Amino acid sequence: MDFAGALKVDHLKFLADGFMMTLYIAFISIVLSFIIGIILGTLRYAKIPVISKIVAVIVEATRNTPLLLIIFFTYFALPEVGIKLDKPVAAITALTIFTSAMLSEIVRGGLNSIDKGQMEAARSSGLTYTQALTRIIMPQALRRMVPPIVSQFISLLKDTSLCVVIALPDLMRNAQIIYAQNVNYIIPIFIMVACMYFIVNYGLSLIARRLESRQV
């Protein structure tokens, strides 16, 4: 093991550049999947004829498809039908598709956890279904969803490492380039990469705990 050679300044800067790409991909994917996940989860909860069933099929198909396959599809298969995405966009698209499906189930479960009587009471007080859902049910459900949603976001951040298969210049790809220079760099580089992932993910978990404690 050569810690001094592996963790020299140039290598650390290169890892930092890759980590910034990882955080960028994760952040955009988190924002998009959160929005889409809420929409899909709400549509399933609302049990709209036909639409809810179509959404359910799409969500279940996506949840039961390996993320790695979705990444391959967005980058290698879509160009075959005339849709060519560059590496960051392909990565964001794949992660958003997969995470949206996972989050939609969290949202649906959160909405279903709210007592049905609250919807009935809201409707009887004169609110429309949409008003009752957005003003009464959804705010309560979102508070209960915080821990599993943050957990899913942590998983998303870790899953960005799978994008190394399309040579996305993220943290894992840059780490590969460094340790390919010298076999003695492998363990030091892996330790550094693990620490970088841990710092961000542990920070997210602390935020989730604080938000959860405020609800108690």
From TrEMBL:
The chain crosses the membrane at residues 20-43, 55-77, 89-107, 183-204. Its main location: membrane. Gene3D superfamilies: MetI-like. GO terms for biological process: amino acid transport. Pfam families: BPD_transp_1. Residues 19-208 form the ABC transmembrane type-1 domain. This is Amino acid ABC transporter permease. It is found in: Cell membrane.
